[in-house]
Amino acid sequence: MRAKLAMACRELDADAALLSEIRAGRENVRWGAGEAGYVGISMLLSDTVCGRLLDGRIGNIVSDATLEESLNQLAGVTDGTVRAYIGVPFETEDARAYVLCCLAREARPDLGEADVRFLQGVAESLRPLLETS
């Protein structure tokens, strides 16, 4: 799991790659690579960037979160932890919901649809690991 997240971090030149489980209105960070300190965090989904992705307020890519009205008041954005974001939601066969995302502390105008497809591929490669856990 961690090796695949580390690969996503490297390929997308991100500071962190996170895999979060979405359950009971919360985002629960289960696995991570890159910057430490995210694994184990549980937040109300309404207070997260991933929550904005899931409710349709943002797309898969946010090149500069400080310029995104629906994000610029979130704690991670205001403190400089999250400047750019790319994420993909997915579910396992047993209907557990997850979001795989990468975060960067710098604006990333270079992120594009090819990067989203790459991250979707990583998510697909993680699905079998999640279905056996």
What does this structure look like?
This is GAF domain-containing protein. It comes from Solirubrobacter ginsenosidimutans. The chain is α+β, with helices and mostly antiparallel strands and 133 residues long. The protein has one domain: Beta-Lactamase. The chain is built from 4 helices and 6 strands. The model has no long low-confidence stretch (mean pLDDT 96).
Helix-strand string? HEEEHEHEEH
Q: Which percent range describes the beta-strand content?
A: 25-35%
Task: Report the total helices.
Answer: 4
Number of strands: 6
Globular, elongated, flat, extended or rod-shaped: what is the shape? globular
C-alpha-based Rg, rounded: 13 Å
Largest sheet: 6 strands, antiparallel
Low-confidence stretches: none
CATH superfamily, called what?
Answer: GAF domain
Cα(first) to Cα(last) distance is: 11 Å
Q: How is the largest sheet built, in terms of strand order? A: 3-2-1-6-5-4
User: At CATH's second level, what is the architecture?
Assistant: 2-Layer Sandwich
Secondary structure: helix percent: 25-40%
Kindly state the mean pLDDT as a whole number? 96
CATH topology value = Beta-Lactamase
Supply the number of structural domains. Answer: 1
- The assigned structural class equals alpha+beta
CATH class value: Alpha Beta
